């Protein structure tokens, strides 16, 4: 099969009926495997890795914190990609997938923020610090809220899809800008103290600095979260497709009634 | 410039309302658009004006030729009659508003704020706006609402003059204007529902 | 284009145009700050640049929901969309008119309000400079938000929810310039970033605003 033909075959899944049939077939695999990965990863991480010499057992919240934070960002990236597909190719499933993913992204962001706060309390002695990373996630949360609110506010589904897609594009640019601005802002404020604090945060936050004992269960959790995200988005997209169809049928009923 | 519409299908709020619509509007001619309420006359006018994309079909000869009068007149209540007209004249690059004031007997009202006009006077001002656009094709959506008999006559005269100068007009109206225009009844073009088992059709 | 700008300015200055509301709001917010944080002049002079920036931002936000909604309601927007003027120019002019009637007065009023908050002397210059560079971006971003929500009833609250996150970079760099200027630190880096963001939003965002407006008009 040539590349062009393959690409064409891929677009077939943009057909709502084909999407539903396929997603229903593969969804059980994603549910089971994500559950397995997360359970094994968490049990391994919580009970079979040693406490950190500095952080004690608090380090183990990493198994929820890091995967959730990763998915919070990846979810937005997925929404950006599907929004672009909608704007360029007008596949309804694509727009609905973006709509379906947003609440999942909100929950992931909230998990990342909450676990971060719970972790921060024993580590930095405070529930909340205006650390660049935490602040960026808070801003990301605000972007998600605006995106979902816009979807909810507009009645006509195609208009809503168009407007939210443009908002997602523009929002992405501003989210990246905000990330750099926040980095600059906090360092600019507390030059001396932030080096220590940034090291304390980033030291535990990036995989490079996590030793191997913690890394493998963490990797398992991350894979589990990715699979869980896919399963949730497939499931929710299916719901959106059905809701959309019901709405369209009702509208037709009104017109032809 | 002839406005030609071929096999046009249009939708309102994602639901198809009219389909298979074909007609031509020649210079010097008027077309009276008829059809029951809710059939999609306003949607058709907005589509021809370019405010919304058609579902299917071609529209030729419409680009930058159309002046559109919707239900609302686009007037600013705190600007005077002259200021309102002058603004639209300069947006369309014509700058000459006196003929428009004359045609709709607005000279006596020229310094009044648009907010202080009666509904009929506002409508006259809104219709006078069509004259300052300098565009050859007029799209008029129920232009005679709230006009008295005298003002309807002014409007009919203005359209006749416009047609005489090689312009054309598509008018959605239910009253008889005394214009010798053909009638375009869109009733038969009501969109038929697609077969219900077409899943993708359920999206439209 | 000039006609549209002149009309919008005329409308703003006529009765009921809402000119001055933003200014009054800015004044009131500034006056309320000492009531809420206490009258110590040392504290006030520390927070003055940030408070004034936030006040200006909120005052800017206040008038956004009128920016396009009035033209939408009376049908002018439909007519403008069919006019020979490209919609990109229309939204740019609208943003410019908003800046001239809201942003610029805020910039000019800020030094006087700075006195109320014990703004340190070197801070006045940088406050005005940063607001002068930052407020155009706020008008342009606000126009995008107004275009997104123009067809909605009660879109005002949603507009704030959409626009405020987009204001974050401008606020951060703008207030940073003012804050650094007030304490005598170098201001070049944040000033350049602020100017860059303003220039980029003015250059690019009108296209997004016009696209969004077209979607809302159909």
TrEMBL record, chain A:
Q: Where in the cell is it found?
A: Cell inner membrane; Membrane
The GO molecular function terms of this record are: heme binding; heme transmembrane transporter activity
Any keyword Protease? no
Alphabetically ordered keywords of this record: Cell inner membrane, Cell membrane, Cytochrome c-type biogenesis, Membrane, Transmembrane, Transmembrane helix, Transport
Domain Cytochrome c assembly protein intervals = 20-190
Question: GO BP, one example?
Answer: cytochrome complex assembly
UniProt keyword Transport present: yes
InterPro entries associated with the record: Cyt_c_assembly, Cyt_c_biogenesis_CcmC, Cyt_c_biogenesis_CcsA/CcmC
Please give the GO cellular component terms listed in this UniProt entry.
Answer: plasma membrane
Task: Give the transmembrane region(s).
Answer: 26-49, 61-88, 100-120, 132-151, 163-182, 213-235
Topology term for the membrane: Multi-pass membrane protein
Chief site of localization: membrane
Q: What does this protein do?
A: Required for the export of heme to the periplasm for the biogenesis of c-type cytochromes.
Q: Tell me the NCBIfam families matching this sequence.
A: ccmC
Give the record's family classification: Belongs to the CcmC/CycZ/HelC family.
Q: State the protein's name.
A: Heme exporter protein C
Q: What organism is listed for this UniProt entry?
A: Ruegeria denitrificans
UniProtKB/TrEMBL annotation, chain B:
InterPro entries reported for this sequence? AAA+_ATPase (IPR003593), ABC_transporter-like_ATP-bd (IPR003439), ABC_transporter-like_CS (IPR017871), ABC_transptr_haem_export_CcmA (IPR005895), P-loop_NTPase (IPR027417)
- Write out the entry's keywords from A to Z: ATP-binding, Cytochrome c-type biogenesis, Hydrolase, Membrane, Nucleotide-binding, Translocase, Transport
Q: What class of enzyme is it?
A: hydrolase
Please give the Gene3D superfamilies that the UniProt record associates with this protein: P-loop containing nucleotide triphosphate hydrolases (3.40.50.300)
Q: Where does the ABC transporter domain lie?
A: 3-204
- Listed GO biological process terms: cytochrome complex assembly
Name of the protein in its database record: Cytochrome c biogenesis ATP-binding export protein CcmA
This protein's gene is called: ccmA
TrEMBL record, chain C:
Q: Where in the cell is it found?
A: Cell inner membrane
What residues form the membrane-spanning segments?
12-37, 43-64, 96-117, 123-150, 157-178, 190-213
User: What domain of life?
Assistant: Bacteria
Q: How does it sit in the membrane?
A: Multi-pass membrane protein
User: Annotated Gene Ontology MF terms?
Assistant: heme transmembrane transporter activity
**Which keywords accompany this UniProt record?**
Cell inner membrane, Cell membrane, Cytochrome c-type biogenesis, Membrane, Transmembrane, Transmembrane helix, Transport
Family matches, as InterPro entries:
Cyt_c_biogenesis_CcmB (IPR003544), Cyt_c_CcmB_bac (IPR026031)
Q: Look up the record and report any one GO term of the cellular component aspect.
A: plasma membrane
Q: Name one GO biological process term.
A: cytochrome complex assembly
Q: What does this protein do?
A: Required for the export of heme to the periplasm for the biogenesis of c-type cytochromes.
Similarity comment: family membership: Belongs to the CcmB/CycW/HelB family.
Protein name, per record: Heme exporter protein B
